[in-house]
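Obj: model holo form, ligand = pyridoxal-5'-phosphate.
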Amino acid sequence: MAARDALAADGGAPVRTRPYPPALPPIEPEDAEAVAAVVRSGQLWRHGGRQVRELEAAFALAHGLAPAHAVASTSGTAALHLAVGAIDPEPGDEIIAPPITDFGTIIPILAQNAIPVFADVRPDTWCIDPEDVARRISPRTRAIVAVHLFGRPCELGPLRQIASAHGLALVEDCAQAILAEHEGRPVGTWGDFGCFSLQQSKHITAGEGGLTLVRDGAHAARARLFADKGWPREGAVRTHVQFGMNYRMTEMQGAVARAQLPRLPALLARRRALAARLDAALAQAMGIVVPPLPAGSQSSYWQYAWSVPARAAEFAAAARAEGVPVASGYVTPLYLVPALRERRAYGGSAFPWGSPYARPQPPFEPGLCPAAETMADRLCYVTLHQGWSDEDADDLGRAVRKVARAFVRRGWWGEPRGPSA
Ligand SMILES: Cc1ncc(COP(=O)(O)O)c(C=O)c1O
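Output (holo structure tokens):
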């Protein structure tokens, strides 16, 4: 074995010894001044100022929509809750979602006493499989949630068709996919709702925060009321015309997110350039598969992910020993986490599953979504950041190729196809 090929985990020289740059949000000094100006003004809530309103208008415009079609809230989970609240399901109605996602995709379904029904992901894209969605539709289904995982757009054409054919709402969970594109059109504008997160790890951030794009005017009005205790602000009399939460974004959040918004196109262009570099480097690695994006699709690269034939956790550990920040697995399929597996949403009642309003559901146990379960042993990813240099990407590519060669040599991946560089 050539010395250059001895894995760092086995005492060889690592590919890289310098640390990677920290994944800082795109915040500039003037953003701090915008927040300070809000604090100095004494108007810290959205109905007293104009920052949140301006953020909504700018975000809607960036998606080709009128201002009233974007509603700000306190988190990505809240942004999804606005959508479910506007859909207004009956208790026991079903909402189809993938199991590979943040729990924030599922919480709003349960909070509205609806039943999350899991459809499997496609093994090649990790996004919800439209064919499995179609199989899981029942007379109680009200909506489909499509999660654009890691920033990769789902198959929105078929999902839109299925939703329309069955009279269902299509909710896009764009928490990881701001300004990703499907067939040249931004995600969040294909469905009835597009839900975004401004949590710390996202492309732009207010620490926490959410934005919901709403296609239909009546739905948008309901979503806005849902974020504000069902309280219509235009009337002289204080009243509450529907159920809702207090999900009002603060002016400080609005100001800091609004300031970052214009930086998104450049930030995404840089992430895409780095990803193209990695695509080329990883195409030469035996056993590594980076799923291609369909023509007209653009990922926003919240994470850059690939699959290995097996032993993803060991692969990631060996890559980290080479000095590159590779992680594996992402999340356990959510139906296997204790809160769902044990049906613990409301005390010991097993509500909403066990309620007379719901249809009986299959147990949450291994085997429900086989492709999602296989992902854990195959998926590796890195948090791609616009602050990376070309050299940072090249070092990652070299480390991945080196570890892949070692795993092939050891026979850990059977007989993988592909080049051996
Ligand atoms: C796919 C997805 N959906 C929903 C959420 C929930 O967003 P938040 O953490 O802002 O509530 C996240 C957050 O990480 C997410 O990645």
